[in-house]
Write a structure and sequence with these properties.
Strand content: 15-25%
Shape: elongated
Largest sheet: 5 strands, mixed, barrel
Strand order of the largest sheet: 3-5-6-8-7
Number of strands: 13
Radius of gyration: 24 Å
Oligomer: single chain
CATH class of the largest domain: Mainly Alpha
Number of helices: 12
CATH architecture of the largest domain: Orthogonal Bundle
Distance between the termini: 28 Å
CATH topology of the largest domain: Hypothetical protein af1432
Length: 378
Amino acid sequence: MSCNTSTPETDAGMVIEHTAVRQLRNRTYGAPTIRRIYIPLPIAKTANGQTRERKPMGSKQLVSELKPGDRVDSYFSVNYKKPVSDYKYGSMFEFRVADKSGQITVKYWGGQDKQAVQRIFASFDREQVVNVKGEVAEYKGALEISVSEKNGGSISRLPEGQYDLSQLIRSYDNIDDLKRKLAELVYNVKDDSLRKLLIAFFKDERFMEDFAASPASITLHSAAVGGLLHHTINVTELCIRVAEQHPELDRDLVVAGALLHDIGKVQSFKVTSNITMTEDGNLVGHIILGDHELIRRIAEIEGFPELTASKLRHILLSHHGRKEWGSPVEPLFPEALAVHEADDLDAKLDNMITKREDAATEDDWIWDQKHQRLIYLK
């Protein structure tokens, strides 16, 4: 059936209907998709008849809300930069920016004056905050911000005090409650050696301060200040439920392994205007860093059982589950498997829930690169 009438509402609706399909990295199903430039309406009706207004240009535009054709005038944190290079019409460079909702590439397209492009490139650095004016485009299935004189674009660094850090980095607002919950979990461990070890970690004020401020990842899950604390408690409580279902497990060993499985992330992440990896995080990795810290703390406890130490080390070293996923060894006993599965489940659920909550679309589906599948939003 064909229809010759076209309105902004029906054109926008057609594009929204095929958003998820277009995200399948050029894989399509059924009849060819009609591609149109989507110009968002000032007010769009949702399925239940309510209206959703686009934010004024003066407010912070989040990465997750950007769509092809959008004008951008907002601030972001700089993750990394690539050097200036030549292209057909002059010189250009690209860099990656982020806010609390995600990341996106920015490309600056300059003219023949390469020195002018170099000056703009040198005017800001990683972990600084820049205001970007430009236009959202789609390239090879991914969104990017195009900045050029032709589209009225510009890049300018913002000093502290001219941006809202809470718009750049997420933060859990119940960190004190999470700290109290973690303390309860520690003191409910009955095994004397394991309880002493956990107290050595979590009663260390400096370590606890860093642990409570650390994210659990950069973008994948619990990517927020307090995220490591949040994720660790979730994994531990999942393990407790498993131990209740399977009383054959060593409950205290499972709980201790869950509480300690990501301790290496304290040394792996750095939080400034964004979340980045430290040199040790990149070069060594949080699993090995955690193992080293565990060995050091165990050595300070006189008479700590050798077999218990080896089992704890195994839980930490195997908690990613597979060697191709970064674990030096794979889980070789039930308690280690329980920690791996709980860790994997919480990470995947948190990622999918966040994607659903942050989805800036009226479509029923979005494509998720990590899970390699469509996510249903309703």
